[in-house]
Amino acid sequence: MTSVAPASTWPLMLGNAAVFPALDGGLSAPFILVGDSDITAVDPGAFARQLDSPRYSFQEALRAAGADLILVSLGTSDTLDGATHQSVQEVLFRAIAERLGSTPLTVCGIGRGALQLRYTLARFELDRIDHQVRQFVSYSSPTPTTAEAHALNKVGSWPAIPRKLEVAGPGVSADSFDYENSAFDGLITGAATNLDPLFTEELGTNIIEETIDL
User: Residues near 127 by Cβ (< 8 Å), separated by ≥ 6?
Assistant: First the structure.
């Protein structure tokens, strides 16, 4: 089990972000993981512990791959375009500002965190703001409500710039992916039933292989 003490914590309008650099001296290759208050803990230490099972630590695997982990814990919100958007936007801006070098960002959202990332990235692109995200992983994203679908449609529904990867449900094969009709560019397998553990070794390994290129 890995240590769960972050190097720093960023207070956000709605929640917080805990920062775990891969190396001393700052951020070099940020991997931003946005949680869902219905699935992941809001407390940074508790959220970090959810990335560890007795046999596998996704946090340590990211570190070994040279990636910095930024855990974003969002409070509860019923909209995509309010405080949650501003909080995710703040994390992206700060990660870019504190990053050493120019390695693009990788983002992964769990549950509503995935839906929020989808909205925020699409809104950045509509506003012609360079979010510098190359890979977007969507993990267990819910179906948008009518209001959320309306908000997404106003910003183009999906971001166009990053490569979009979907975490498949338990037991789903990568061979079943419909490249022609999906909004995603690829499928990542290995998720556990009921998201327990949150990151299996298979899922964590597949995410890192698909997204980390240092």
Answer: none
pLDDT exceeds 90 at position 4: no
Alpha-carbon torsion 174, 175, 178, 179, what sign? positive
Instruction: Tell me the CA distances in angstroms from 171 to 76, 99, 102, 188, one per residue in order.
Output: 30, 37, 37, 11
User: Residue 72, SS3?
Assistant: strand
In terms of Cβ atoms closer than 10 Å to its own Cβ (0-12, 13-18, 19+), residue 91 is: buried
% of the chain residues with pLDDT over 70 = 97
User: Which positions ≥6 away from 85 have C-beta within 8 Å?
Assistant: 116, 119, 120, 123
Q: Which residues pair with 68 in a beta bridge?
A: 30
Cα→Cα distances 187→49, 61, 154, Å: 26, 20, 26
Measure the CA dihedral 94/97/101/106, to 10°: 30
168 three-class SS: coil
Q: Give CA–CA dist 199/192, Å, rounded.
A: 7
d(CA 210, CA 5): 27
Task: Report, as an integer, the average pLDDT of 156-171.
Answer: 94
Q: Is residue 15 within 8 Å of residue 75, measured between CB atoms? A: yes
